[in-house]
Design a protein that fits this description.
The complex is a heterodimer of chains A (about 270) and B (about 200).
Chain A: H1 9-13, H2 16-20, H3 26-38, H4 40-62, H5 72-85, H6 88-97, H7 99-125, H8 135-144, E1 148-155, E2 170-175, H9 183-189, H10 199-210, E3 211-212, E4 215-216, H11 224-243, E5 253-261
Antiparallel strand pairs in A: 1-2, 1-5, 3-4
Helix pairs in contact in A: 3-4, 8-10, 10-11
Chain B: H1 17-30, H2 34-56, H3 59-76, H4 86-109, H5 116-123, H6 129-133, H7 136-154, H8 157-168, H9 173-180, H10 184-204
The chains are: A mainly alpha (about 270), B mainly alpha (about 200).
């Protein structure tokens, strides 16, 4: 008993090319053959595809081979040898024919080496720059007592009732010691007659307090007791500098703000 | 009974004998053996030339391209790992080189192309060398060949490649896919389009 399954043209149409090309597998080949036995249209399609392939193969086979094909290997080997001769040594030799490029390259390498060496020496042996807002900079400013103090405050009780009201704020500019400092500031820097510490003593004490092993520490790294001492010293120094300022006489001030100006600079403005 | 049992070592089947021979040849060529290189070329030069000719349609161009292909083969042989057969690997190089050359040729000569009618008006008709000396049978064959090459030349390059590899070189779908670096389904669809276009061109001619 044999099972005959009839297939339609639609079912096999897409497989015609595979059939002609020998790409169909067993059961599909049998099904295709069975269909072609009964379907002249599909058989004709198969024949046309085969004829087209035959025509291509016949035409291709009839094309004569040019003579150059047989000499292909010698030509290729010659070219390969020529390419091998142009090895990197030959390339380098050609590059060195024009020596100025070699000089340029060597000079660039030497300059890079010298610059790197110089920078390394500076970084290794040069002075470490101090930041303006560091504790060491603060001590330096306090110790050198150069520049100007600006005080912004309100006189207690008023010092010039005709010119201003009792509560008018004033801005005072005060010399901060130094050779050209006023007598008031020089007096502040000297030890007082009653044996109390001078401002210079306080600055020295502050420096000794916050410098550990020659390095300026930070407030964050201090123990609470040390930190309180440092803050007390700073407050005492501030009081010294504000205690009696010239121009105001014995007038007491409620000081709101103190600014120390150590230097000023003028920069050119672009046109 | 166990004493009579012979245990035969299993032979590795990853390579067929032909592939092993190819692999040995590849190793010798990569080592710089010129005799091996010459043998590789003599084994494949017809195949390379004919594929180049069928893709480019010009004998001299095909010869030049064949040289380029073999030079490239020898340059890149050390990178050949045997994932495909040597033949399909070389086919792939031929197709890539032919594609590059056609692209370059179109860019360079597009501006210089002159329609045939314009050329004939300027220089006169091309001499018909065939009809004077050829017998009728040969003439007929020549005309058929011209029609076929003309139709083939009208196909887009990717379609022309698959139909040449299939019909003339006899590669399977899988080998064509390996040679072109595409999927088998792509090969089948390109082949179907190429056959449709060829049939229309040859039927109309």
């Amino acid at each position: 008993m044999s099972l005959v399954i009839h297939t339609t043209c639609d079912q096999v149409h897409d497989q015609i090319a595979d059939f002609v090309d020998g790409e169909l597998r067993g059961p599909d080949v049998l099904r295709m053959l069975e269909h072609l036995d009964t379907c002249t249209a599909c058989a004709e399609e198969v024949k046309t595809v085969r004829q087209m392939g035959d025509a291509l193969r016949t035409v291709a086979a009839s094309e004569p081979l040019p003579r150059g094909v047989d000499g292909l290997s010698s030509a290729v080997i010659s070219r390969a040898r020529a390419e091998a001769d142009q090895s990197w040594l030959a390339f380098v030799a050609r590059a060195c024919e024009d020596w100025h490029w070699a000089y340029v390259g060597a000079g660039a390498v030497a300059a890079t080496f010298v610059s790197t060496l110089l920078l390394s020496v500076i970084l290794a042996f040069g002075p470490a720059p101090a930041r303006d807002d560091s504790l060491s900079a603060l001590i330096t400013n306090l110790g050198s007592s150069a520049g100007w103090l600006f005080l912004y405050g309100t006189p207690v009780g008023g010092y010039d009732a005709a010119a201003s009201t009792a509560e008018s704020p004033v801005l005072l500019q005060v010399d901060n010691g130094g050779p050209a400092a006023s007598g008031v500031m020089r007096a502040l820097a000297e030890r007082t007659s009653d044996g109390a510490p001078s401002e210079a003593d306080l600055v020295g004490a502050l420096a000794a307090e916050i410098r550990r092993e020659g390095q300026a520490g930070s407030f964050q790294s201090m123990r609470p007791a040390d930190r309180q001492r440092v803050e007390a010293l700073l407050e005492q120094i501030t009081r010294f500098r504000l205690n009696d300022v010239g121009g105001v006489g014995t007038t007491m001030l409620n000081v709101h703000e103190v600014r120390l100006v150590t230097s000023t600079s003028v920069s050119a403005k672009g046109l | 009974m166990s004493e009579d049992l012979l245990v035969k070592p299993l032979r590795a089947l990853t390579w067929s004998d032909a592939a092993s021979a190819d692999w040995a040849l590849v190793q010798q060529c990569a080592a710089g053996d010129e005799a091996a290189c010459a043998r590789l070329m003599s084994d494949h030069q017809r195949m390379v030339y004919q594929l180049a000719f069928h893709l480019l349609g010009d004998a001299q161009e095909a010869l030049d391209l064949s040289q380029e292909v073999f030079l490239r083969v020898f340059r890149t042989l050390p990178s050949f790992r045997g994932q495909s057969t040597l033949r399909t690997w070389i086919y792939r190089i031929v197709v890539n080189q032919a594609s590059n050359r056609l692209r370059w040729w179109r860019r360079r000569h597009r501006a210089q192309q002159v329609p045939l009618e314009e050329h004939a008006a300027t220089h006169g008709d091309l001499p018909d060398q065939r009809s004077a000396a050829m017998p009728d049978r040969l003439l007929q064959q020549r005309e058929v060949a011209d029609r076929v090459w003309g139709a083939l030349g009208q196909l887009p390059f990717d379609q022309r490649t698959v139909i040449v590899l299939r019909e003339i070189d006899g590669l399977s779908y899988e080998e064509i896919a390996e040679s072109l670096g595409v999927a088998v389904g792509t090969v089948k669809s390109r082949l179907a389009r190429a056959r449709g276009t060829l049939r229309a061109a040859l039927g109309a001619a």
